[in-house]
């Protein structure tokens, strides 16, 4: 049986805590169907710093194992530099997390020769694929984000009160200020009884005061704490909403896992034209786009939806059709593992 050393944030044996740990747990589960996998879990590495010694020992002892780095380039760039300097020839797979790698190579932050020392570089976005190929990075493959999709909740057409939802880490960079400001405008326009907004997710420590003050002024906007998307009931709950709000401008945004959750739950999005978002969300079918940092544009787009200017029911159906493309079993296949020389 082929051997794989898997390096990244995993939170092994526990529920995932973010997009990286979620994705990595899915990858590991698929790899274990075909390979013997040694997991080198760097999540909260300060609490178990001996993982560095474990990693070094594993690389030495398992000299023929494929090494899979599934994390952001900033976490492994130094390792790739040493591999190149010492001329260590291994089947190294860089399963890229996040959306900034292409820009950083293009702008000279990362050396293309170092990034290209990985034999295979797997990226979520067609745009990043083009950026890296333009910089002469070899072995780049487009592999979109994925989840295990074995359930589609029942969806229904919007009713009299339009239900908006935000599901992600609650912080300024995800566009939460813009959502609060847009809700203020809508309420000033007399639409308070025609819509609600619910937030799900952990509030960033440095954003808690701002967020709570914003909520205190908006009786139809609430924080609903946590939604477990590992359970069917999480999708059932998400499917009770009509649209997802995601006016993000977070610098690391790639193919956000929330896109897949929204597709599964039949939620078209109002989303910023930011980073790689337009690569995954189809304008007018699965989402509507607004400029970054534009609360007024968000408010007007929400108002258009409240007023019935878009066929949201048809968009909800499009979303669930789109979801099926991102099932992990369709993406992490034997064919892909052979292509990256794991099998």
What can you see in these coordinates?
With 343 residues, this protein is α/β, with parallel strands linked by helices. It has 15 helices and 12 strands. Strand 1, helix 1 (19-31) and strand 2 form a beta-alpha-beta unit. The termini are close together. The model has no long low-confidence stretch (mean pLDDT 95).
The biggest sheet amounts to: 6 strands, parallel
How helix-rich are the residues, as a percent range? 25-40%
Tally of DSSP β-strands: 12
Percentage of residues in DSSP E strands: 15-25%
Compute the average pLDDT.
95
* Shape label: elongated
- Give the count of helical stretches: 15
Sketch the topology as an H/E string, one letter per element: EHEHEHEHHEHEEHEHEHEHEHEHHHH
Indicate the structural class.
Answer: alpha/beta
**Taking strands numbered 1, 2, ... along the chain, how are they ordered across the largest sheet?**
2-1-3-4-5-6
The Rg value, from CA coordinates, equals 21 Å
Low-pLDDT stretches are none
Please give the alpha-carbon distance between the first and last residues. 9 Å
Salient structural properties:
343 residues; six-stranded parallel β-sheet; 15 helices; 16% strand
Please provide a brief summary of the model.
This protein is of the alpha/beta class and 343 residues long. It has 15 helices and twelve strands.
Summarize the topology.
Layout: E1 3-8, H1 19-31, E2 36-41, H2 51-61, E3 66-70, H3 73-85, E4 92-95, H4 101-106, H5 112-115, E5 120-123, H6 126-134, E6 140-142, E7 162-167, H7 176-188, E8 195-200, H8 208-216, E9 221-223, H9 232-238, E10 243-246, H10 257-264, E11 269-272, H11 277-280, E12 287-290, H12 295-306, H13 312-323, H14 328-331, H15 334-339
Parallel strand pairs: 1-2, 1-3, 3-4, 4-5, 5-6, 7-8, 7-10, 8-9, 10-11, 11-12
Helix pairs in contact: 7-12, 10-13
């Amino acid at each position: 049986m082929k051997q794989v050393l898997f390096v990244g944030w995993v939170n092994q044996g526990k529920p995932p805590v973010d997009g990286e740990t979620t994705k990595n747990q899915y990858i590991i589960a698929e790899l274990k169907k075909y390979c013997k996998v040694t997991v080198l879990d760097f999540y909260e590495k300060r609490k178990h710093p001996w993982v560095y010694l474990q990693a070094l020992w594993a690389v030495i002892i398992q000299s023929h194992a494929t090494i899979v780095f599934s994390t952001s380039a900033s976490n492994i760039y130094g390792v790739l530099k040493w591999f190149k300097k010492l001329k260590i020839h291994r089947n190294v797979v860089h399963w890229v997390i996040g959306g900034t790698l292409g820009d950083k190579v293009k702008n000279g932050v990362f050396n293309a020769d170092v990034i290209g020392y990985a034999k295979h570089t797997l990226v979520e976005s067609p745009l990043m694929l083009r950026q890296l190929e333009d910089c002469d990075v070899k072995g780049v493959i487009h592999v979109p984000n994925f989840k295990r999709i074995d359930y589609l909740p029942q969806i229904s057409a919007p009713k009299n009160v339009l239900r908006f939802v935000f599901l992600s880490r609650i912080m300024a960079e995800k566009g939460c200020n813009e959502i609060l400001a847009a809700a203020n405008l809508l309420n000033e326009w007399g639409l308070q009884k025609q819509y609600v907004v619910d937030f799900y997710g952990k509030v960033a420590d440095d954003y808690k005061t701002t967020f709570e003050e914003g909520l205190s002024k908006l009786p139809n906007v609430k924080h609903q704490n946590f939604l477990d998307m590992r359970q069917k009931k999480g999708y059932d709950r998400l499917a009770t909403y009509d649209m997802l709000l995601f006016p993000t401008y977070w610098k690391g945004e790639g193919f956000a896992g929330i896109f897949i959750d929204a597709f599964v739950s039949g939620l078209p999005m109002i989303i910023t034209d930011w980073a790689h978002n337009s690569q995954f969300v189809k304008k007018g079918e699965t989402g509507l786009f607004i400029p970054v940092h534009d609360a007024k544009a968000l408010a007007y787009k929400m108002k258009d939806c409240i007023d019935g200017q878009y066929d949201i029911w048809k968009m909800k159906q499009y979303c669930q059709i789109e979801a099926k493309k991102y099932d992990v079993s369709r993406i992490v296949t034997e064919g892909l593992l052979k292509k990256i020389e794991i099998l």
